[in-house]
Write a structure and sequence with these properties.
Elements: H1 2-5, H2 11-29, H3 36-42, H4 45-56, H5 62-75, H6 83-88, H7 90-108, H8 111-116, H9 118-124, H10 136-155, H11 158-181, H12 188-207, H13 209-220, H14 226-255, H15 259-277, H16 286-294, H17 306-313, E1 323-325, E2 331-333, H18 357-401
Helix pairs in contact: 3-4, 5-18, 7-13, 7-14, 7-15, 10-12, 11-12, 11-13, 11-15, 12-13
Length: 405
């Protein structure tokens, strides 16, 4: 603060800086296109197409519009699900607690403790005096690595960045803990190394757990209940932030530098959780994610690429929400209802519990939308087959005419 403002007494100026951020958001958001799914739910088709074309940067959005129609219509009657009904469904409950754990873990990883209590943490790792002002490098590093994360999230995937990000933070916290307890590390050359370690910690967070924690739940949750489930996750995020900032002061008072070891263990647990309990959500729809989660098998929680996920989704014997593969290459959702009541809802297939009045509507809506797609594909295949047979008969007649006697 003294470097930027000249005096710590000018701290109220920092509060005024926040208003400029709010003004910037107001200006930027006024130029952002509206959410396509929101426009679809409102029935504004003209604005929907324009918004989708603007977001994708192309005019070829017909396939995405069809997928959006199928997903939104299949879940339209589930928009009134209460929190009690969400928690009563096994699959949705697992999805919800996974998102809550991700958001809690993001805060308990210690990132905010480094930002808020950087001077205390640097004192643990022998970075004291004028070198503390170099903490601004961490802020610059955060902005730079955030741009790198945007490029890697789609190429590498969400899950690997989360796992390796937490692993890197675990290792770096251990290194800081060692540097704070070994006297040989207090020499001047090691002070620079420790500062590099702190900057690397910020980079690991910004590339993986920072953005990934907010993206994965959005891609996991079905559209109809996404708002309610994300609301719970955001509340968990704020609770985790309070626990992290308050807990750091308590731990510092009782165990001193070993506080860093506690945060290191937390990051290791988070890395294992992401590896064992998450699926890769990149390039698959929320409906496909729901199908994988409904299986209840541990192998659906491992890293799954596009090819593997399609094969798992099409496995009728193991997955009650199997997506049947057609010869045209499309995945069509056909939930099996043989083992449960014919009035069971789409989300109640895992538990076999009969649903309320919305269940029958959802069941019928799913059958109608999926059945139409299957019939369309089947009719197209029949037309292609008839055309092929007709061409074959024509070639055969021509061959017979030129056959010598």
């Amino acid at each position: 603060m003294q470097v930027v403002l000249g005096s710590a007494a000018r701290w109220p100026v920092l509060l005024g800086v926040s208003s400029s951020c709010a003004l910037l958001h107001l200006i930027v958001f006024s130029f952002c296109p509206e959410s396509p799914r929101y426009l679809y739910s409102r029935g504004v088709e003209v604005s929907l197409v324009g918004s989708l074309q603007r977001l994708r940067g192309t005019n070829l959005v017909e396939d995405e519009l069809k997928d959006m129609h199928t997903e939104v219509e299949s879940e339209r009657n589930l928009q009134d699900l209460s929190y009690r009904e969400i928690l009563g469904d096994k699959t949705l409950r697992r999805l919800l607690w996974t998102g809550v754990a991700l958001h809690l873990g993001q805060q308990l990883s210690g990132m905010n403790a480094i930002i808020v209590y950087s001077v205390d943490l640097f004192s643990f790792s022998s970075i004291q005096g004028p070198d503390t002002d170099l903490a601004i490098v961490g802020g610059v590093n955060f902005l730079v690595t955030l741009g790198v994360s945007i490029c890697l999230l789609d190429r590498v995937g969400r899950k690997p960045l989360l796992v390796y990000g937490y692993l890197a933070m675990f290792i770096l916290f251990l290194m800081l803990s060692v540097s704070s307890t070994m006297g040989v590390w207090f020499r001047h050359p090691w002070r620079i190394v420790n500062l590099v370690i702190v900057v690397g910690f910020v980079a690991a967070y910004a590339i993986g757990p920072g953005p990934g924690t907010w993206i994965v739940p959005v891609e996991m949750y079905p559209l109809a209940v996404r708002a309610k489930m994300l609301g719970v996750c955001v509340c968990a995020n704020w609770v985790g932030q309070f626990l992290c900032l308050f807990g750091f002061l308590v731990l510092k008072q009782y165990i001193g530098p070993l506080t860093l070891v506690v945060y290191a263990i937390i990051n290791l647990v988070l890395a294992l959780f992401c590896h064992l309990c998450l699926i890769e959500t990149n390039n698959i729809s929320s409906r496909e994610v729901l199908s994988l989660w409904a299986s209840g098998s541990s192998k659906y929680s491992s890293h799954i690429d596009d090819r593997d996920s399609k094969s798992l989704l099409s496995n009728d014997d193991e997955n009650p929400y199997a997506l049947h593969q057609t010869s045209a290459g499309s995945s069509v959702g056909m939930a099996r209802y043989s083992s449960v009541s014919p009035t069971a809802s789409f989300f109640d297939q895992e538990t076999g519990v009969g649903a309320s009045y919305r269940a029958r509507s959802t069941h019928e809506l799913l059958e109608e939308s999926d059945g139409m797609r299957v019939r369309d594909l089947h009719d197209e295949q029949e037309r292609e087959l008839e055309q092929y047979k007709a061409n074959g008969r024509g070639r055969q007649r021509g061959h017979n005419r030129v056959r010598p006697s």
